[in-house]
Amino acid sequence: MSDVEQPRAGAPRAGRQGGKFLRDVVIIVVAAVLASFLVKAYLVRSFYIPSASMENTLLIGDRVLVNELVPGAVPVQRGDVVVFQDPGGWLTAGQGDDLIKRVIGMPGDTVSCCDAQGRLSVNGHPVDESYVVLPPGTDRVAMDDFSVTVPKGRLWVMGDNRYDSADSRAHGTVPVSDVVGRAFLTTWPASRWTVLSRHGDVWDGVPDPS
What we know:
Layout: H1 2-43, E1 44-48, E2 63-67, E3 81-85, E4 98-105, E5 110-113, E6 121-122, E7 125-126, E8 146-149, E9 154-158, H2 168-171, E10 174-175, E11 179-188, E12 194-195, H3 200-203
Antiparallel strand pairs: 1-2, 2-11, 3-4, 3-11, 4-9, 5-6, 5-8, 6-7, 9-10, 11-12
């Protein structure tokens, strides 16, 4: 009797083990899908670049991934490329609700333009922005002079293409609360796949406002 009954006793155990395995697989798949949804919904978003204001860092038609933990959990830094909601009056009807620019001045910073080499100064420190588009036949950026101290809770932002960017020079500062996130990766087209740099070598030497 025992030779016949032992396989029968083992069969339910095998079935139970198989069922447990399938249950675990389903749980893992569901968890992975949910995690992916949460990441896309609350941590990372994709944005399309519709204008030339950030050339040559970003070109028309590029798609970028944006880290939405900035500025809530991760602070904004000088040099960050950020997406922000239109504070009002930056965009005309039909242009959408979001813009993308580089952070030049943090709250309390004094941003001035320009020295003899065409460089911006932040808190008296000139910054060599090698990524800025220069007009054909020139070796310096030529902009109208200005000097502004960024109010508390706001940012001074500018496009890398200084000759084709309606930015804080035209519209003023941006509330930090309007920042959607920091762009960190160009994902499309495939030939443009690259990590977006804040150019720490340029910005880390800027002193805090006195």
